[in-house]
Prior knowledge:
The protein is of the alpha/beta class. A 9-stranded mixed sheet has the order 13-12-11-14-17-19-18-20-21, with helices on both faces. Strands 3-4-5-6-7-8 form a 6-stranded mixed sheet.
Amino acid sequence: xxxxxxxxxxxxxxxxxxxxxxxxxxxxxxxxxxxxxxxxxxxxxxxxxxxxxxxxxxxxxxxxxxxxxxxxxxxxxxxxxxxxxxxxxxxxxxxxxxxxxxxxxxxxxxxxxxxxxxxxxxxxxxxxxxxxxxxxxxxxxxxxxxxxxxxxxxxxxxxxxxxxxxxxxxxxxxxxxxxxxxxxxxxxxxxxxxxxxxxxxxxxxxxxxxxxxxxxxxxxxxxxxxxxxxxxxxxxxxxxxxxxxxxxxxxxxxxxxxxxxxxxxxxxxxxxxxxxxxxxxxxxxxxxxxxxxxxxxxxxxxxxxxxxxxxxxxxxxxxxxxxxxxxxxxxxxxxxxxxxxxxxxxxxxxxxxxxxxxxxxxxxxxxxxxxxxxxxxxxxxxxxxxxxxxxxxxxxxxxxxxxxxxxxxxxxxxxxxxxxxxxxxxxxxxxxxxxxxxxxxxxxxxxxxxxxxxxxxxxxxxxxxxxxxxxxxxxxxxxxxxxxxxxxxxxxxxxxxxxxxxxxxxxxxxxxxxxxxxxxxxxxxxxxxxxxxxxxxxxxxxxxxxxxxxxxxxxxxxxxxxxxxxxxxxxxxxxxxxxxxxxxxxxxxxxxxxxxxxxxxxxxxxxxxxxxxxxxxxxxxxxxxxxxxxxxxxxxxxxxxxxxxxxxxxxxxxxxxxxxxxxxxxxxxxxxxxxxxxxxxxxxxxxxxxxxxxxxxxxxxxxxxxxxxxxxxxxxxxxxxxxxxxxxxxxxxxxxxxxxxxxxxxxxxxxxxxxxxxxxxxxxxxxxxxxxxxxxxxxxxxxxxxxxxxxxxxxxxxxxxxxxxxxxxxxxxxxxxxxxxxxxxxxxxxxxxxxxxxxxxxxxxxxxxxxxxxxxxxxxxxxxxxxx
Length: 868
């Protein structure tokens, strides 16, 4: 580890410093350490040594001084981790193993080996988190180090490696780290390196591992000794054992692998994978851990370009908790876009737990209870995915945790059912499922254009508006439609309709937020209308913008609905919540809970706690269902369906209590002699122009053209000039006294147009508010709308999935307090005008300085351009 990693209590570091910069409680010693990238790796290795290899914390230490050569005393080097032969003697001459860790960007060097040469240690480890190397020093060759694929567990010798009994296998505590090490090694050296092919090969070996663990023979066949790992003949022997297992796998899992399919990885890579997995039990490892590890091998292109963004586990668990599949009622579950099986696996955990509770007081044998749970999964859990690699991974995943692979199909859930494979047609039908959970692929780049698919759907038809502005469905098939909207209708169709006193099936679906709130896209408005006519809205949870980062910044919500008989209910409350903590940032790095002073909060084991609020939201929903109040934090709240229909919005953010409280505060603050008006009633026009082809010219021949960024900056840097001959240029020109509002991107920034804006063209990404001076003073209107009290109101009005947007209609609907006494307006407006005058003067001074600089350095230049 680098010298920058310091312990609390050192001369140069205080607890106050650590509180500011962050720290980790060391797993071995309990000491507080600086939170660095190297430290994260060290903690992972410590956990692996204790939990996977069985070494006790008492026989280990960190930052242990190694005396070698002239480096003694205060000059001695410190080993990151040492393991002693026993707990009694923590002495350099009693060291059994030395481990050195580095940051992920560092490469291997011989430092750890140099440490070992000054000790009697037999083993050493080097890791940067992405790659972990193990070395052995034979007793007869004290200066020779041979790389091995793993070290012995506590109480074992090197000859015991690869000779395990199944009873000795243990759950993996950091399976994702193991998989990442395998992935990195294979990607650099295997005969197969294409991600989709590599993932398929890894799936084959995982099935071999599962099959071997399920086999009643007490001895493992998925194994490799150190001697075998050291020679090509030995690696061939390991590979032949695994290929023999795969022949048995094909007989058992014929629905996954064809008769002629073979393992295509080279023998060296097969042996490497075996060495990393042979001592752990996949069947005893937490299913959530297995799922996360599986996704290491999911092809990268499936995580973005095809719109398939894998749902973070906190969101999945929240959805399962809220939709609540009940194992005691034999509810039928489906995910028609199952990906790697995340929703199905967590739902399966829930159902199996329900059955455990149901039978815990019974006298049934454990094997019989396991048979009942297995039958439930095989008969009531189904998944579909159009991507063969994902369907196969989902099958493998389901096979590990519950043998539910028979319900997973590779097919297109959106296609006409008659086009599905016959076996799927026999198993999956409309109107049959009690629970559906899914995160369908979304994005305009993967729009559906096939007429045979589109013609099945109401939402695959063209929409029009009648004279009242209402959406009308036609019988004409659209040319294209985004898959997320089609999935919305198809998912409802899968659900069981209500019958007699039994309510309809229910679903949780992750959707781009624009479907829930876009006011301008007729297809999104049509989707909302269709939903309200065919379902009861149970709940909406808005997710943080970073939820699917680092793959996409698309804003999403989880929509919970129940299928109805087509007669909309007119009066009920909908649960809504706004999640603000998803546990990672936009780069995917974890975010941890901290005290108000920045100190990380630790759990009972001394580990940092990921900062997530989705679990609390699920608990709030349960309280809502039971008629109980929940904590008034602004996180969870209720909205009446009438208000949702009136607003034509389903996103939770629009109904945020913070925005509602802000508006109520404004209304209640209106004094005697004042009244409330909408912006629409005091303006001549609120609009933005249509986009047209822009022709840019030199400064002397054009009109200044300001972007949204230009109008919000103190200076107009990088201004372009539109040709005066540009068609419809008058629509882009603004006037003094208008109020300008950025409508997309960084939405809701207001600027009061001073004299410098006269006859200047402004981007269509800026809304123009034209005050009616006979009704209101323009400067006063600007002062009101720019008051901080309106900030949460503007935020609640933002729409869109990728780019934040606000609309002229929203601005027109804003209520503002207006004094009956015109002189009060004018007095406030005058101050705004004076401020703008001074701002213009400051800009002019700055521009003069720039002109002087340009005249000296000859920096000023311009070029004519054309932009569509």
